[in-house]
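Quick one:
INPUT:
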């Protein structure tokens, strides 16, 4: 697997990879960061002490889980703001806007009202990505990948939750126009361990400068 840093100047200074649980956003973000020789920003879900509680009992664990992620992500993005965003290339595996997407999905109306008050008080000034890569895959593929990677608490994720999450992502990105957007069918390609699949996607990433684009590799080129 070849991950040599690009010898050409990267076309983007801040790239975000997004998509539902299990779609492969963190793995792709890691490989893009190696190719660009860039800083990697991860949401570090394993640091959230409430996440396992949420998957066991969503109603009991939703609010503390969501607030922990909000504070964690805000702190990371504030650190970027304190440095020159253009001083280095950065690749992240989350878009802060998705925090509210998860909050609306998991919180009841009263909890979401409290979340919105806290969100507003934080007065978050987030850097705008030069490119957002939105990975899509069917529910069966997401469930298979979640099972394969074997994170214990994720095995409790049910199909209904993933379906609601996937629909929320689709609605969000249908209206998204803040940054150039590359929508990728990640169902059958292997961008992590198959060099040809990855290189073809990487070429698409380098080409996008503005607007909305779709990339459908159809199926993995792996033997």
């Amino acid at each position: 697997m070849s991950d040599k840093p690009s010898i050409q100047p990267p076309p983007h200074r801040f790239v975000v990879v997004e998509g539902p649980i299990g779609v492969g956003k963190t793995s792709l973000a890691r490989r893009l960061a190696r190719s660009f020789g860039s800083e990697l920003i991860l949401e570090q879900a394993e640091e959230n002490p409430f996440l396992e509680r949420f998957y066991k009992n969503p109603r009991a664990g939703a609010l503390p889980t969501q607030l922990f992620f909000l504070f964690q992500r805000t702190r990371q993005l504030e650190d970027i703001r304190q440095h020159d965003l253009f001083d280095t290339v950065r690749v992240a595996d989350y878009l802060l806007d998705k925090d509210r997407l998860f909050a609306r999905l998991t919180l009841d109306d009263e909890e979401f009202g409290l979340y919105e008050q806290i969100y507003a008080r934080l007065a978050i000034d987030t850097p705008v990505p030069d490119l957002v890569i939105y990975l899509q895959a069917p529910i069966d593929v997401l469930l298979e990948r979640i099972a394969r990677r074997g994170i214990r608490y994720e095995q409790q994720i049910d199909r209904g939750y993933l379906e609601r999450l996937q629909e929320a992502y689709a609605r969000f990105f249908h209206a998204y126009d803040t940054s150039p957007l590359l929508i990728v069918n990640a169902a059958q390609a292997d961008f992590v361990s198959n060099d040809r699949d990855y290189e073809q996607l990487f070429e698409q990433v380098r080409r996008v400068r503005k607007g909305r684009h779709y990339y459908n590799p159809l199926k993995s080129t792996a033997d």
